[in-house]
Amino acid sequence: MSATPPEASSTARRLPLPNPFALTTGGQLWGAEVAVETYGTLAPSRDNAILVFTGLSASAHAAAHAGDPSPGWWDAMVGPGLALDTDRYYVIVVNSLGSCFGSTGPKSVNPLTGQVYGGDFPELRVEDIARASQAAVDALGIDTLHATVGCSLGGMTVLAHAALFPGRARGMVSISGAMAANAAAIATRSLQREMVGSLLKAGADTALVEQAMRWARKIGILSYVGSDLLEQRFGRDQTEPYSGRGSGTDFEVESWLEHLAHKFVRQFDPWSYWTISRAMDLFDFGAFGVAAGADGLQHRGATDTAAAARRLILERALVIGVREDLLFPVEQQREMGQVLGESGVDCEYVELSSAYGHDAFLTETTLFTPVLSEFLECIGANTAQRSRILHPLGTNING
Amino acid sequence: MSATPPEASSTARRLPLPNPFALTTGGQLWGAEVAVETYGTLAPSRDNAILVFTGLSASAHAAAHAGDPSPGWWDAMVGPGLALDTDRYYVIVVNSLGSCFGSTGPKSVNPLTGQVYGGDFPELRVEDIARASQAAVDALGIDTLHATVGCSLGGMTVLAHAALFPGRARGMVSISGAMAANAAAIATRSLQREMVGSLLKAGADTALVEQAMRWARKIGILSYVGSDLLEQRFGRDQTEPYSGRGSGTDFEVESWLEHLAHKFVRQFDPWSYWTISRAMDLFDFGAFGVAAGADGLQHRGATDTAAAARRLILERALVIGVREDLLFPVEQQREMGQVLGESGVDCEYVELSSAYGHDAFLTETTLFTPVLSEFLECIGANTAQRSRILHPLGTNING
Fold first, then answer.
1. Among this protein's residues, is B161 annotated catalytic?
2. Which domains are delineated in chain B?
3. pLDDT at A9 > cutoff 50
4. Would you say A348 and A317 are in contact if contact means Cβ atoms under 8 Å apart?
5. Rounded to a whole number, what is the distance in Å from the CA of B2 to chain A's nearest CA?
6. What is the pLDDT of residue A241?
7. Catalytic (active site) residue A152
């Protein structure tokens, strides 16, 4: 573990991964690296680091800072006095392996061939994202994390990290995540991958692939936000002037979707999208609880989440779910809280309500802030008994 | 009104529409016709006819009969002793104007040009579907219908029919319909139309259009069935043999979706799909309650469903909603029942529960049968008071 000195200010850098970097299902990456941004100061005791795992399409740029004043995706949560308080914690955000914002992914050049990976990027699993981020933590000379925090895909990755690296984090926060995607989420993401992947594999031109990415993004948005939100914001408001022949903008809600989808397309690499989306569907925390099956297939009931949870070494865990989440239904998050709680982890489960559904952690940060800061503060506090924090919309699994 | 003699057996035929047939927003169809199937016998008193309005993609072939023994889409509901009891009622099912199963639609040849309409088919509204079907009723020499019954789009069309032809039906049944689509349903269908329409308009080859139709259908299926159903049926079951490189069949739920979508594509005309889908989004029952706005636009709150309902002349109405319906949320159907009930219509509202969600009327017919047959029986029965029928999962709006 080669330690780098603690930094006083927020910085962005790339950290090399062990070379070659071995992937879960047999692939290898040569000369791979991850893009990392850190916020705050690593304490001399090196015990105040929080590792953040992101959603599918986010970068390491969680918050604006002097080196990069552009808006971050979690500006309201990462900073002095905020939920991830940079006056106290050293916050590490890693761009997921397989993504396209500085970390090695399908858009990178494979040094063995001199060609961009594209569809030849080896199969990626959520476990690989967790391993690559932990390698960054190692490179920063941090032995034990104060906590891991993850949203959406990140809310799955914290579980993979906890299972792969028991004891390397004292606390774990899963926000709008799941132990495994359900059938509807798989079906939704599968359709998105089919749209983008079929055109990519056919070598379709950029315009067609971008069109498929726009459509996939629209499906995504409709699975993120609740229908109540759309109804409140747009209802049946029509666009002006009325287009008559159905150009796709009869209604305001159509224009809004188009605006968001258009923005996304040029930001995110299609093969990264395809690769990480599939990793999400293949992730199954319960697989850590069983030996691999003879036929290599997962069968219903064959994985064991309780056994997987018993292997964890965590002081505390916090699971936050949002009732209106269509993609990661709150039942899945309640179940995660229960499984962790019953395994002996001191686990708090908090259920929030927001019309933003799966996107709530990005927009309704005031709901998440008190829950998160209180939890992070309790880690390591020498409390005589298990956490009993109660929140307006929360329930304590062990309470 | 030219009367044809009542028929003793189920038959399929095409009935000509008034020529030209004027559409709501100014278009005209020359030589238009609708495909009609009738089941049962028209009584000498001509008062036992039930007109069925279908969902977006259904034909007039609701049930198998001697002339066409292929399965109908509502075989379990239309026949002797069934909910639409052909021993008692003369059931008329019309293929919607704009569809592609015998009625004039985008796939038809425009007699003025000798060309297939395709994208030149004039703008269609739900009101036009109601008018064309009523023209068929006129052609059959029926003055007053015992009832209209409609599911999904049909559950909107019954409202259009009731508003356009007050007193021409004694009863009305809306199943999984709405007074107007909500923002999420508009957004979903808009995306489906964009996929199919953009390729059609670009003159893309059949294979690409079929691919878009497959994708649009998958979005549709995911909006019809509840996620609980997918979870119960498929969970995370993987396909065998494991495809490894993500051909789109990692999971059973993906294969199932592909199977259904593939089946649909060759059955339904893409321009019909586009045209009727848009009609669904533009329908607004409340527009019958207000004069047209000065700017021709609908503004939030500008339509008046209560005023529209007060213009209806109906003996009884039945509104059936399904709690798990994602596309036509049960709140919308409860609201329909309330608006009708408050307008003075003797309206019963029944809420059912089925994991099949929006598709329940096609699959869970045993839930619908008692509700529907009891209601149809009460129409015209000289009850001294308003209907008080109660069902396990039902509430009486006037009760």
1. no
2. 11-181+284-396 (3.40.50.1820), 185-280 (1.10.1740.110)
3. yes
4. yes
5. 36
6. 53
7. yes
